[in-house]
Amino acid sequence: MKVLKFGGTSVGSVNSILSVKKIVEAIEEPVIVVVSALGGITDKLLATSTMASKGDLAYEKELSEIIARHLDVIEGVIEDKEVRIDVQKKVMALLDELSNIFKGVYLINDLSAKTSDTIVSYGERLSSLIVSNVIKDAKLFDSRKYIKTVKQFNKHIVDFDLTNKLIKETFSPLPKVSLVPGFISSSTETGEVTNLGRGGSDYTASILATALDANTLEIWTDVDGFMTADPRVISSAYVIDRLTFTEAMELCNFGAKVIYPPTIYPVYHKNIPIRILNTFNPTAPGTYISKERVKEEGKAIIKGISSINDTCLITVQGLGMVGVIGVNYRIFKTLAKNGISVFMVSQASSENNTTFAVRNADADLAVQVLNDEFALERAQGDMNDTVAEKDLATVAIVGENMKRTPGIAGKLFGTLGRAGISVIACAQGASETNISFVIKHKYLRKALNSIHDSFFLSEYKVLNLFIAGVGTVGGNLLEQIRIQQPKLMRQNGLKLNVVGISNSKKALLCREGINLDNYLEELKENGEESNPEHLCEEIVKMNIFNSVFVDCTASPDVAALYETLMNNNVSVVAANKEAASSSYDNYTKLKETARHRDIKFLFETNVGAGLPIINTMNDLINSGDHILKLEAVLSGTLNYIFNTISADIPFSEAIHMAKEAGYAEPDPRIDLSGKDVIRKLVILAREAGYPVEQADVKRNLFIPEKYFEGSLEDFWKNIKDTDAGFEEKRQLLEAEGKRFRFVAKMENGACEVGLQAVDSHHPFYELEGSNNIIMISTERYHEYPMIIKGYGAGADVTAAGVFADIISIANIR
Ligand SMILES: NC(=O)C1=CN([C@@H]2O[C@H](COP(=O)(O)OP(=O)(O)OC[C@H]3O[C@@H](n4cnc5c(N)ncnc54)[C@H](OP(=O)(O)O)[C@@H]3O)[C@@H](O)[C@H]2O)C=CC1
Ligand SMILES: N[C@@H](CC=O)C(=O)O
């Protein structure tokens, strides 16, 4: 035989009760079916009691809703008219009793524990009566007659000797289907109605399964089983197929509300397995809980992560505690005497403090009673005042396979460190099945996500992207992500979740991910007013794990956010060159911050767009080479212009064309003035190991300074004046068989940029379109420098370079 328990949601509606009928009637062996009250009814009974006890006549409305709910369910689940009328009568009789009790509570304005217990018992009495008339051949039993309790420490404790005896008598012989109300019981001494506490229906089922030696206990609920973590917080959480009793106990004691914790003890002792199944998805395999510890190859070492939101840490501290016997005894005795439950304890081996976790609501009382207990020691200066730190959260990782497996704690705390989360207290029992730690509540979501990502081979890894700038580069990047995303997910298990998008005026932020099919309209219509500071604040506030800020703007104000973002463990990928070419101090500070926080600051596209220049230089240096000299054409815009001007296309027209083609900076004067090449050379020199500032670069510019003064419109208007002069120079050069190239050079840290006329023997002569070229001379590449050449500007190649930086953070293959 087996015992099946159906919770409130499983018997909460007409459809769910019909599913229960189908599930039970398909079983061939004898079954005991335990039911909870209709979903939400226990809460409503309690709320109505409180109203009535306060003399609030509105209780009558609540009561009429309770009545209507039950009558509606009967109407929907019982087809046979005669049976239906009979059940309606019986149910109405119970509801009349209930109504009279409420009236009494209302009239005398008093709600004793006994009356409250009686009122809530109606929930299961009503539901079991209804369900017993839905399932074919079901026989209804009354749990008050065989689940007996005695009072201990103001709680109703099961009187197991009597209960087991009565259960055996009651269910002999065992009917094919026995229908049993969960939760309710009665007192051994007085016979009065009692109950097993909230969630007690699971316990009823466990007690019955144990007393009758069932082969399985099935808990039917509204989820597919124990999940690796709370799926409302972690989208990649999945159902755990097997757990040991210990693991299940650890997980549900620690916040996973799949089963009521005491349920596990009785069946554990008789080694009766529990299956967690979903009434709404009955074919799902669910979670199987048994004594056996199975170590499955390729599966995560830990089984689940759970958490307690409501945590306060209390610390008792003082040098006077060191070596003194009995301090902890006094702490915990005092707490117990005052009914304060402690769920985590941590004591340093120095013995100078004991820290423990309680619920926030118990904190003030705990501090007060402990200060009283240690009043003398405090007065003598041997101990400090007791301190409470509220609004914290406790997280636990659970798994029996952690036993004797080195590196678990290291991995856990390393993961938290990389996410920028500080651990306030931690504890691990010698059983090694649970490592618990306390953090600030605001980091809970991030901690759970980071740990889940690190420990579980989820179907996919997530990178959360904030993309600033949706123009030429940013827009192209978003389109590449949109197109590539399904393949990355399928082949590499990488989900790129774009959680933020912004332009200069608006920001769109969504933790769950922005739909990339129509982000521009969304940004326009639903984006919030934004500026760089606001954007930064919002990102920090969202506090998302594995997040990357992608800067596709040209804004110095946006670049100024990197430090704060990185200090909040957000990696940065920049197409924007402002930060890497800013003061050397700022550049090194950002790089050090990234190293120190174990995050990334990547800016490959700052030089040569998608060409692998910076990465190659880093690889050379990291393998022990030294960069001695760089010679390069680094402006796609200028190279394009010099390759495009002709008798038909004047200089000013070629600038327009470079802008149109997406090569030029948002402000093309940055290209024309040589500034863009200067900052690129500075970045390369720094990456090569030379502490260079922009002011150190010698420059031989080719457009007089006056053209860069005034507004951008002035520039476009005035630059036409240079067309004739340029055409003259071009013709001369053509006659000499030479071409203009704007060349950047660095030799042992000395940098210069300038216009050069190169002949056909020069390696830069044949450099088509907007291409860039760089010759890198090193100790190893000396006689024949390393050459990297290709598209050096343009939306798609730059976006692809930014994309590559992002992918490198995910570290996928
Ligand atoms: N084009 C290329 O070949 C290469 C470009 N780069 C770099 O890429 C960056 C982007 O260039 P590109 O795409 O051509 O420029 P665009 O002008 O096309 O786009 C810039 C984007 O940045 C947004 N923006 C500006 N200021 C802010 C701000 N304060 N906060 C948020 N968003 C802002 C703009 O918004 P709005 O529309 O509201 O102004 C726009 O969406 C530049 O730094 C450039 O140097 C690097 C390598 C190659
Ligand atoms: N404006 C730049 C774009 C790449 O950095 C260029 O023309 O090279």
From TrEMBL:
Its cofactor is a metal cation. One of its GO terms (molecular function) is aspartate kinase activity. It catalyses: L-homoserine + NAD(+) = L-aspartate 4-semialdehyde + NADH + H(+); L-homoserine + NADP(+) = L-aspartate 4-semialdehyde + NADPH + H(+); L-aspartate + ATP = 4-phospho-L-aspartate + ADP. Coiled coil: none annotated. Its EC number is 1.1.1.3, 2.7.2.4. Residues 316-400 form the ACT domain. InterPro entries: AceGlu_kinase-like_sf (IPR036393), ACT-like_dom_sf (IPR045865), ACT_Aspartokinase (IPR054352), ACT_dom (IPR002912), AK-HD (IPR049638), Asp/Glu/Uridylate_kinase (IPR001048), Asp/hSer_DH_NAD-bd (IPR005106), Asp_kinase (IPR001341). Keywords: Amino-acid biosynthesis, ATP-binding, Kinase, Lysine biosynthesis, Metal-binding, Methionine biosynthesis, Multifunctional enzyme, NAD, NADP, Nucleotide-binding, Oxidoreductase, Sodium, Threonine biosynthesis, Transferase. The keyword Cell cycle does not apply. Pathway: Amino-acid biosynthesis; L-methionine biosynthesis via de novo pathway; L-homoserine from L-aspartate: step 3/3; Amino-acid biosynthesis; L-methionine biosynthesis via de novo pathway; L-homoserine from L-aspartate: step 1/3; Amino-acid biosynthesis; L-lysine biosynthesis via DAP pathway; (S)-tetrahydrodipicolinate from L-aspartate: step 1/4; Amino-acid biosynthesis; L-threonine biosynthesis; L-threonine from L-aspartate: step 1/5. GO terms for biological process: homoserine biosynthetic process; lysine biosynthetic process via diaminopimelate; methionine biosynthetic process; threonine biosynthetic process. Bifunctional aspartate kinase and homoserine dehydrogenase that catalyzes the first and the third steps toward the synthesis of lysine, methionine and threonine from aspartate. In the N-terminal section; belongs to the aspartokinase family. Homotetramer. This is Aspartokinase I/homoserine dehydrogenase I. It comes from Parabacteroides distasonis. The lineage of its organism: Bacteria, Pseudomonadati, Bacteroidota, Bacteroidia, Bacteroidales. The gene is thrA.
